[in-house]
């Protein structure tokens, strides 16, 4: 599979998301509207490039004649800032980019990525720079690795609910657990970490 330009990735993402949401592909004009262009000539050029590179197939004579190839069945998910695997840190919600994973690896429910900062989870093989795949959910089981909010700040830790407290446990002996007793404050679960993606170079 050949590398895609940023604009080609954007077109592929528009097609993938439209199919996922509506069950059928978008028209050229619908793609153009998402790209912010009025004509269809530029859209056609991008679709031709995506077809040539093996990401999709087009059927002539059909306004919605776009089929994603098996290789193109990736789902681009947003990277919504960073979460600290260390001390508590204000949550960052700016979308810094997208990372595409295979559709078969994605759970339902608006999964997203957070970029990991810090080294408090290194014994769970989570290091700085990793992309943590997070499935949004409001609760967690003991031992789940979660993204939690404590007093408006975010952290990535292993979750434990104990008698009268919640313990957010790091996986690095150099860090103390974050303990929140009943009445001390609120811990809210942003979601469970269901995957870690890492670039080796």
TrEMBL record:
The feature of type site (Cleavage) is located at 85-86
Q: Where is the Peptidase S24/S26A/S26B/S26C domain?
A: 78-194
Molecular-function annotations in GO: DNA binding; serine-type endopeptidase activity
User: Which residues are in the LexA repressor DNA-binding domain?
Assistant: 1-65
UniProt EC number: 3.4.21.88
The cross-references to CDD domains, in alphabetical order and at most eight, read: S24_LexA-like
- UniProt key word tRNA-binding: no
Which terms are listed as keywords in the entry?
A: Autocatalytic cleavage, DNA damage, DNA repair, DNA replication, DNA-binding, Hydrolase, Repressor, SOS response, Transcription, Transcription regulation
Q: Which InterPro entries match?
A: LexA (IPR006200), LexA-like (IPR039418), LexA/Signal_pep-like_sf (IPR036286), LexA_DNA-bd_dom (IPR006199), LexA_repressor (IPR050077), Peptidase_S24_LexA (IPR006197), Peptidase_S24_S26A/B/C (IPR015927), WH-like_DNA-bd_sf (IPR036388)
Gene3D superfamilies listed in its UniProt record: Umud Fragment, subunit A, Winged helix-like DNA-binding domain superfamily/Winged helix DNA-binding domain
Which terms under GO biological process does the entry name? DNA repair; DNA replication; negative regulation of DNA-templated transcription; proteolysis; SOS response
EC class of this enzyme? hydrolase
Any idea which residues the entry calls the DNA-binding region?
Answer: 28-48
Answer whether the UniProt record assigns the keyword Repressor to this protein. Answer: yes
Q: What catalytic activity is recorded?
A: Hydrolysis of Ala-|-Gly bond in repressor LexA
- Report the active site residues: 120, 157
Known SUPFAM superfamilies for this protein? LexA/Signal peptidase (SSF51306), Winged helix' DNA-binding domain (SSF46785)
The entry's family comment says: Belongs to the peptidase S24 family.
Q: How does it assemble?
A: Homodimer.
Purpose of the protein? Represses a number of genes involved in the response to DNA damage (SOS response), including recA and lexA. In the presence of single-stranded DNA, RecA interacts with LexA causing an autocatalytic cleavage which disrupts the DNA-binding part of LexA, leading to derepression of the SOS regulon and eventually DNA repair.
Q: What PANTHER family does UniProt report for this protein, alphabetically?
A: LEXA REPRESSOR, LEXA REPRESSOR-RELATED
Task: Name it.
Answer: LexA repressor
